[in-house]
Amino acid sequence: MLSKTLPMVSAAFQQLSRARVGLIKLYRRADLAPVVLLIAGISFLAHVLVGDNYGYFRDELYVLAMSQRPAFGYVDVPPLLPWITLLPRLLTGNALWAIHVISALFCAGTIILTGLMARLFGGARWVQGLAALGSATAIVLLADGSLYTYDVLDGFWWTLAATILIVLLRAEQPRRWLMFGLVAGLGLLTKETILFWGSR
């Protein structure tokens, strides 16, 4: 058993190392202001530290219940969030802090993307920081970052789709529409509100 497990663990660490190198390259290429990452990091820690002070929110209990019976669709909601919930539930049971870590990560990702959009529009480093600060202190993110609901993922997909759209308009590379389609698809598997992109 151990002889089979060790190569798998080693391969996982190699993949993590490659992902780390890729993220460093991506960060350098994006030329993102360090203060954006600082604000996102503070937001992440703040949400993780206070996220389990108030017990379970009703929607969190609903998602945890759905994750016990994974399916490709449910009566009233798309399936992505219950599938994501499988990992923390299998690792930690129904620990509240574990699902709130996911919310805090998506919230931090939204803040970073906001700073990146400011960068893509030609904003200086202080502009990127101001954009990230505005995102981090927005009431909707202050609330969503501490709750494990569809809304925090929905906001992330919208922000990521907007970022990709800005890149598309600047670079005119048709291939990147595939990336936009992928993000829109993930958004649709999260919440139907992403369809509003098609009505614009």
Automatic annotation (TrEMBL):
<keyword id="KW-1003">Cell membrane</keyword>
<dbReference type="GO" id="GO:0005886">
    <property type="term" value="C:plasma membrane"/>
</dbReference>
<dbReference type="InterPro" id="IPR038731">
    <property type="entry name" value="RgtA/B/C-like"/>
</dbReference>
<keyword id="KW-0328">Glycosyltransferase</keyword>
<keyword id="KW-0472">Membrane</keyword>
<feature type="transmembrane region" description="Helical">
    <location>
        <begin position="130"/>
        <end position="149"/>
    </location>
</feature>
<keyword id="KW-0808">Transferase</keyword>
<dbReference type="Pfam" id="PF13231">
    <property type="entry name" value="PMT_2"/>
</dbReference>
<feature type="transmembrane region" description="Helical">
    <location>
        <begin position="155"/>
        <end position="171"/>
    </location>
</feature>
<feature type="transmembrane region" description="Helical">
    <location>
        <begin position="32"/>
        <end position="50"/>
    </location>
</feature>
<dbReference type="GO" id="GO:0009103">
    <property type="term" value="P:lipopolysaccharide biosynthetic process"/>
</dbReference>
<feature type="transmembrane region" description="Helical">
    <location>
        <begin position="97"/>
        <end position="118"/>
    </location>
</feature>
<feature type="domain" description="Glycosyltransferase RgtA/B/C/D-like">
    <location>
        <begin position="76"/>
        <end position="196"/>
    </location>
</feature>
<feature type="transmembrane region" description="Helical">
    <location>
        <begin position="178"/>
        <end position="198"/>
    </location>
</feature>
<dbReference type="GO" id="GO:0016763">
    <property type="term" value="F:pentosyltransferase activity"/>
</dbReference>
<protein>
    <recommendedName>
        <fullName>Glycosyltransferase RgtA/B/C/D-like domain-containing protein</fullName>
    </recommendedName>
</protein>
<dbReference type="InterPro" id="IPR050297">
    <property type="entry name" value="LipidA_mod_glycosyltrf_83"/>
</dbReference>
<keyword id="KW-0812">Transmembrane</keyword>
<keyword id="KW-1133">Transmembrane helix</keyword>
